[in-house]
Amino acid sequence: MQGTTRKRPASTSRMLKALAFLTPAALMILIFVFYPVIRTVQLGFQSFNLFDQLNVGYNGLENFRNLINDPNFDRVLKNTFIWVFVSLFFQFTIGFGLALLMKKKFKFIGIYQGLIFIPWALSGFLMGLVWKWIFDESFGVLNDALLKLGLIDTRIPWLSNGNWGMAAVIIANVWYGVTFFVIMILAALQGVPTEMLEAAELDGANRFQTLFKVIIPYIRATLILIVLLRIMWITNFPDLIFGMTQGGPAGRTHIISSWLIEKLTLDADWGAASALGLMTMMILFVFTIFYLMATRLEKESGV
Amino acid sequence: MFTALGKSGKFLVLTIWLFFTVFPIYWMGLTSIKPKREVNDLYYIPNSSATLDNYRTLFRDYAFGIFLRNSLIVSLVASFIVIGLGILGAYALARYEFTGKAQVMLAFLATQMIPGLISLAPLYLLMQKLGLLNSLIGLTLCYVGGMVPFSTMMLRGFIQRIPPELDEAALIDGCNRFTALFRVVAPVALPGIAATFIFSFVQCWNELFLAMILIDSEGNKTFPVAMRSFIGGYWIEWGGLSAAVMVGIIPTVIIFGLMSKFMISGLSAGIVKG
What ipTM was estimated for this complex? Predict the structure, then answer.
């Protein structure tokens, strides 16, 4: 037995107690989180239609082949890429900026925080509906406001055109996700020792220099982690799109995860949906490895 | 960075963002109190024709009371169970050393890398086997399973901040580990427990896809699922829908508004999913 607490040596009875405390949670995780992963791997290699459960059988790589040969596949991948990185860029920069502005306490900051953190507590699906109404071509408030302000002459076909559609869902996603970055970055900023900031000031650093030479290097590890978590989260966040466009018009605003939902619900093709889920996991896994390698390399070379 | 902007610039930026954040909700609220014939009229400030008709219709003609009740029961029960299991697990991970602890921790963390969406089909098949399809119990169990890993890690963070001397004193005073946890440690960790509870509640309240797949009878639908069928057709009745959206978001807005302080410290204490 290698582990010890600070005072007592580990004993079998202590270990049994720890296991007793841990078992209920561990069981739930095994049944409801890890078992489904194994089952998904199995489903990914089966032809499985919900309404034809008697004809289930392994079909090798057919699900994957069908997905890759699907005429929508390339566009869905491209959309996912745009959705993730454009959303992330704006969420991160706006979130970082707001966190910097909110670092120093001001009057009513509590109320202010309470209000701008609200999106975090809201259902992505319901907010998707709200944004659908705002972006409505004929009766939406956005086109109306833009017309009244003289910024456009003709109504923008926000949700009936693929490119405008992508722009619309990304704007909504930026609205939705900035909160996360503000909360996390604000917490990280409060961890920066005031002595370091004072020292920088004494050395005559201006705000830019303080930001890039002191603050960012200090919270770098946190930033790397939350960006990674967020990339995974945004990839697997079809709720907004589901509420706004359902992937439409004609599949033009589908990302991987909303396409997966469509395969699951509309097509009832669970083999395809599972294969798509597995592909997403693989892509994210490979991405994570490269991401961690890249951020570590950057640190070692001292950039 | 913001020296050039100065102080008034700072507040201008903050105000613009506040406007952008609140406006969609304001707009939905405004639409919901417009009379049906004015839903498409683009005025920006409520006028004397404001009415609660849309809300009345919602509860009288569409039985939204039942959907709200279902959502409330599932979210509350799931969150209580999550907290119960989470505290026990968190206590073991915070206070005991044992062989394989590092691996257990890794397993808990690894769950955060698994997209919830891939569990949808397997959980349906599992519930089918257990005879828990179209059942609020089945849905609650699935939510508990999904929320336990993160909640345990979050609670562990809070328990770790409490000095172990506290439970040791309780043990000397005749408590066993279990009573020490619930009489001494849990009360001190209460803010953390509250934050975890709210986090779990909000996630369950907002969950759509699992509920959509598992539940099919009217009487068992949770709120988001009912909304889904509400917009089923090509034509959307925005008056009623906006009232429904408002009803759906108000509970989490209120809870979050009251607890945002706890939430902020609580969420940044752990690795966050959501």
Answer: 0.91
